[in-house]
């Protein structure tokens, strides 16, 4: 069998962006693509209907649409890794609000399968006010960003064998996937050599947020809350071997609520408020 790749895109209420992102994928692939699987996780808008119309209108035969009831990216990620993926040599993970550079997927695919010992390839940021900083995180620290990265089939198999899952309700997912890839799932303190590769000119770009858009402002606020709560969650998970991580972050979130003053001592008033609001939402969502 010839070498192939597949792509999974995670979408939550992306009816405004999903068509542009899917088109960008199909404009930057080659015939080695097996499938593009879009997982709509807990969408309450028209994301799924937009996808169904798009598949028919543009004859995207390789587009698979999966709808999950639970709106949680970790759950969607686990479903793909352990149940939905195919036998491709590389699996690319993307978000539904970005576009991709010319021939991004063939170029990144070729680089990953030709790089010894590499578990993953990072898509390089090509836009954004802090582009240079995020690019340095890739080149200097081997970081991955959920906008675009690829995992080898060998690493997928490693995760399956070790039954590695991301706990539902986990925030700041990129940090944990970066650690997993760079340590062969041992979550040691130091990166193993050459586990992540990249191409300078191949990656993703996105439309800048506008201070005049209420949706963009809400998105920016949500990102801050996820990032800050994720850093706190990380301190709890770092105390445990990954095999002992809970299936859900609910019990950890209960601990964070009980220790909120201590755990948020270094945050300013606004960030504390945003973290508290998100924490309360997650506690209610996963209490059952």
Structural overview:
With 288 residues, the protein is an alpha/beta fold. The protein has eleven helices and eight strands. It has an eight-stranded mixed β-sheet with strand order 3-2-1-4-7-6-8-5, with helices on both faces. α8 (214-237) crosses α11 and α9 (250-258) crosses α11. The chain is globular and about 55 Å long.
Write the layout of secondary structure elements.
Blueprint: E1 5-11, H1 18-26, E2 33-41, H2 47-57, E3 63-68, H3 73-84, E4 90-95, E5 99-100, H4 104-113, E6 120-125, H5 131-141, E7 148-152, H6 153-161, H7 173-182, E8 196-205, H8 214-237, H9 250-258, H10 260-263, H11 269-285
Parallel strand pairs: 1-2, 1-4, 2-3, 6-8
Antiparallel strand pairs: 4-7, 5-8, 6-7
Helix pairs in contact: 8-11, 9-11
Evaluate the radius of gyration: 19 Å
CATH C-level class of the largest domain is: Alpha Beta
Give the low-pLDDT segments.
none
Strand order across the largest sheet? 3-2-1-4-7-6-8-5
Largest sheet: 8 strands, mixed
Helix content: 40-55%
CATH homologous superfamily annotation of the largest domain: Spore Coat Polysaccharide Biosynthesis Protein SpsA, Chain A
Distance separating the two termini: 45 Å
């Amino acid at each position: 069998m010839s070498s192939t790749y597949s792509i999974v895109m995670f979408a939550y209420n992306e009816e405004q962006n999903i068509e542009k992102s899917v088109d960008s994928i199909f404009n930057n692939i080659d015939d080695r693509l097996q499938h593009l699987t879009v997982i709509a996780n807990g969408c309450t808008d028209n994301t799924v209907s937009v996808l169904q119309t798009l598949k028919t209108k543009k004859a995207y035969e390789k587009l698979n649409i999966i709808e999950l009831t639970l709106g949680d990216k970790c759950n969607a990620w686990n479903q793909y890794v352990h149940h939905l993926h195919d036998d491709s040599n590389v699996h690319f993970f993307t978000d539904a609000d970005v576009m991709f550079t010319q021939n991004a997927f063939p170029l990144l695919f070729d680089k990953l399968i030709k790089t010894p010992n590499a578990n993953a390839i990072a898509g390089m940021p090509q836009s954004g006010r802090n582009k240079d900083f995020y690019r340095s995180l890739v080149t200097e620290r081997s970081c991955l960003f959920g906008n675009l990265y690829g995992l080898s089939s060998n690493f997928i198999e490693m995760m399956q064998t070790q039954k590695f899952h991301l706990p539902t309700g986990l925030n700041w997912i990129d940090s944990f996937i970066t650690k997993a890839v760079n340590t062969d799932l041992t979550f040691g303190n130091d990166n193993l050599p050459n586990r992540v590769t990249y191409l300078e000119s191949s990656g993703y770009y996105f439309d800048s947020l506008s201070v005049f858009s209420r949706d963009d402002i809400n998105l920016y606020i949500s990102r801050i809350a996820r990032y800050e709560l994720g850093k706190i969650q990380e301190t709890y998970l770092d105390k445990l071997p990954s095999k002992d991580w809970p299936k859900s972050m609910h019990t950890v979130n209960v601990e964070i609520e009980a220790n909120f003053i201590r755990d948020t001592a270094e945050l300013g008033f606004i960030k504390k408020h945003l973290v508290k609001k998100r924490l309360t939402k997650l506690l209610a969502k996963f209490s059952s």
